[in-house]
Amino acid sequence: MNNLLVSSTSGFDTVDLKLRGFKVYEIDTAVSPVPSYSRRDFYKICLITGRTNIHFADKSVELDDTFLFFGNPHIPYSSEVLTPHQTGFACLFTEELLKANDRSEPLQQSPLFKVDGTPIFQLNEEQKERISGIYRQMLVEQQSDYVYKQDLIRSYLNVIIHEALRMQPTENFVKHKNASSRIASLFLDLLERQFPIESPQSPLRLKSAHEFADQLAIHVNHLNRAVKEVTGKPTSAHIAERIISEARALLQHTSWSVAEIAYSLGFEYPAYFTNYFKKITGTTPSAVRESSVVVAA
């Protein structure tokens, strides 16, 4: 299996990508590997020609032609390259790049990036040539010294997005799991993608069933029923277990203060974190920190 959408290579600067907000590159699997990146940080739009099996969320789609794929960092996806040679283009970008102002609609609400959408569009020859031309313009602009090239790249991406909005997604090729399995799978993936916590300045974003339900654009009761049906445990239990697991790791393996750990896990006050931790574990964060210091000594 060759994972075209998520594979690895050395020398790809994700720090530079975060600073610029975008990275455009050409895909040719017979020549060079595809750059790696963190799906948690970046959106992606690919134009691919070649036989491919794409897995995203609970779905699988097999295509044998040219297609557009819209990757959302909040939805798991991967691909199998089924032919010896594939070509195309891709652009990685941050949500901030496309949000020209604070009133812009979040990308996750876009029909192309919604959790329950089908982000794959099969292209005819005319559409392929038109969108390939846009990617070539982005590649040229990426290397230029034009001071407003970020704005220009944003404009090119918006053109591709609007081209796709005119099309019909490739629904007829999709295979689905049952609804409860799909929802539970998306919830568990969203939960896990928040970890590990990298710094106190990047706190946990989703920490309640309601927040996860909002992210998945479903009612919280629907989420709770699906998770309980599939896993046998309530949504809140999964969240609590993962938060406590991360809290233990931070207490034992970092030098962060208890207050910093509390903030990083989404607690407004350290006392709230201490009470939460003690209620679930029967001990306090300070006791866990002290015991880890003794073991280390």
TrEMBL record:
HTH araC/xylS-type domain sequence ranges: 181-291
UniProt keyword annotations, A-Z: DNA-binding, Transcription, Transcription regulation
Keyword Methyltransferase among UniProt keywords: no
InterPro entries: Homeodomain-like_sf, HTH_AraC, Tscrpt_reg_AraC-type_HTH
Keyword field contains Transcription regulation: yes
GO molecular function, one term: sequence-specific DNA binding
SMART domains the UniProt entry points to: HTH_ARAC
Protein name: Transcriptional regulator, AraC family
